[in-house]
């Protein structure tokens, strides 16, 4: 099929949104795009991408097309698509889009199958659903894929499980694990955008409230820091003793979720795991507790338990569902338990996605150049790509740094003082 979108009439508005994003994404939309346009390193390559269809993703897709690629794009979340951006991209040469806001689960996976059955040379994924679909339903096609990339922690976890089980059919680059992605996108991007989504959905005051952050990886760190910066009293829950100790040393309260559930006002999950907040926690929560998820899938807040406990529910604001329990307590779930930053807000700021998608573009180029040379394993982003992204970002910001002298290089490489 050709592009399948819902609102083609929004294309002009979408182009303005993309223009705004690209002004704040000089690494991927200027430096890399200009080189790609001149060198055409992706000439004739079919790139299948399952990503959040946002104005920032549009900047990446346009850069891939400038490099000679033909791109098919589908959504990586049923509720995260910006319909105006989807319309704008679908009107451009070399791009086909299957995405709209409010997709059913069947429609969501139909679009992913549309990409898989296209026999892409390179696949880009956010969450692992494209990788998994290829390996479960299109094994012959998966075996012919040159390589893939993965944008988020959840997807990398799935890829590494596939590698451990010996079923991975092509080399995959864990873009999420690049320092210029994880340390900035996960921490500063999600930290800001998750809080932004919660505030847009609720308009509550964070100052003075107890905010419970589940998980203290880079995403949890970013959310905890931003919440504290707005005056919240932040509690962290963890299963990893090292991360828990780090949270304590960073000045946060740390306790089990069963205790935090009794006193928290706002709960934000950021673990990549399932059933992080479940029945036993809902049963002891305060009246008026607010629940939000910043993990990729809608499994961290276990909504089936909440549905069973509730005697009624209603939509009280856009993206806010009120669940009334048998004893009269009300619990508020944001964005249906899906990614609050992309459902109730616009996702990460363009400036931070500039680095994430620069890693994606350069990793795609690397996979094309490395065709036939890599085993079907999960690889880190090559260090030279990570450092190039940082160098270009600093250049865009007008910042210069020192360089080692030859004497200093020799000193660092020698065991003799």
UniProtKB/TrEMBL annotation:
Ranges for domain S-adenosyl-L-homocysteine hydrolase NAD binding: 186-347
Enzyme Commission no: 3.13.2.1
Names of required cofactors: NAD(+)
Gene3D superfamilies assigned to the protein according to its UniProt record, in alphabetical order: Adenosylhomocysteinase-like, NAD(P)-binding Rossmann-like Domain
Record InterPro entries: Adenosylhomocyst_ase-like_sf, Adenosylhomocysteinase-like, Ado_hCys_hydrolase_NAD-bd, NAD(P)-bd_dom_sf, S-Ado-L-homoCys_hydrolase_CS
Annotated positions binding substrate: 54, 126, 151, 181, 185
GO molecular function, one term: adenosylhomocysteinase activity
Cellular component terms (Gene Ontology): cytosol
Record-listed NAD(+) binding positions: 152-154, 186, 215-222, 238, 273, 294-296, 341, 348
Protein localization: Cytoplasm
Gene Ontology BP, a term: L-homocysteine biosynthetic process
Reaction equations catalysed: S-adenosyl-L-homocysteine + H2O = L-homocysteine + adenosine
Pathway the protein acts in: Amino-acid biosynthesis; L-homocysteine biosynthesis; L-homocysteine from S-adenosyl-L-homocysteine: step 1/1
Cofactor: binding comment: Binds 1 NAD(+) per subunit.
The protein's role, per its UniProt record: May play a key role in the regulation of the intracellular concentration of adenosylhomocysteine.
NCBIfam families in the cross-refs: ahcY, PRK05476.2-3
Family: Belongs to the adenosylhomocysteinase family.
Protein's name according to its UniProt entry: Adenosylhomocysteinase
Protein's organism: Hyperthermus butylicus (strain DSM 5456 / JCM 9403 / PLM1-5)
Record gene name: ahcY
């Amino acid at each position: 099929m050709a592009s399948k979108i819902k609102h083609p009439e929004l294309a002009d508005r979408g182009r303005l949104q993309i223009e705004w994003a690209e002004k704040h994404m000089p690494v991927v939309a200027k430096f890399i795009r200009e080189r790609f346009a001149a060198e055409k390193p992706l000439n004739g390559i079919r790139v299948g991408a399952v990503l959040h269809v946002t104005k920032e993703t549009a900047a990446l897709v346009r850069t891939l097309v400038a490099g000679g690629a033909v791109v098919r794009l589908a959504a990586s979340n049923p509720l995260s698509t910006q319909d105006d951006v989807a319309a704008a991209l679908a009107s451009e040469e070399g791009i086909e889009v299957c995405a709209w806001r409010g997709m059913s689960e069947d429609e969501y996976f139909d679009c992913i199958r549309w990409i898989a059955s296209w026999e892409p040379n390179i696949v880009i994924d956010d969450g692992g659903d494209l990788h998994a679909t290829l390996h479960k339903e299109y094994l012959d096609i998966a075996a012919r894929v040159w390589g893939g990339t993965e944008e988020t922690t959840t997807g990398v976890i799935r890829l590494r499980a596939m590698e451990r089980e010996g079923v991975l059919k092509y080399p995959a680059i864990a873009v999420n694990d690049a320092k210029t992605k994880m340390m900035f996108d996960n921490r500063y991007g999600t930290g800001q955008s998750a809080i932004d989504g919660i505030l847009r959905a609720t308009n509550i005051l964070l100052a003075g409230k107890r905010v419970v952050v589940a998980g203290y990886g880079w995403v949890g760190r970013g959310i905890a820091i931003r919440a504290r910066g707005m005056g919240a009293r932040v509690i962290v829950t963890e299963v990893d003793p090292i991360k828990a100790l780090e949270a304590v040393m960073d000045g946060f309260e740390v306790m089990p979720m069963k205790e935090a559930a009794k006193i928290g006002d706002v709960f934000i999950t950021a673990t990549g795991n399932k059933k992080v907040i479940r029945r036993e926690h809902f049963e002891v929560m305060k009246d008026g507790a607010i629940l939000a998820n910043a993990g990729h899938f809608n499994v961290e807040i276990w909504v089936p338990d909440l549905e069973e406990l509730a005697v009624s529910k209603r939509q009280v604001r856009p993206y806010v569902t009120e669940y009334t329990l048998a004893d009269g307590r009300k619990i508020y779930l944001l964005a249906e338990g899906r990614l609050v930053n992309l459902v109730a807000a616009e996702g990460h700021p363009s400036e931070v996605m500039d680095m994430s998608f620069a890693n994606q573009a350069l990793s795609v180029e690397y996979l094309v150049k490395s065709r036939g040379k890599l085993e079907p394993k999960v690889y880190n982003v090559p260090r030279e790509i990570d450092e190039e992204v940082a160098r270009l970002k600093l250049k865009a910001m007008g910042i210069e740094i020192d360089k080692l002298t030859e004497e200093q290089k020799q000193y660092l490489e020698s065991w003799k003082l």
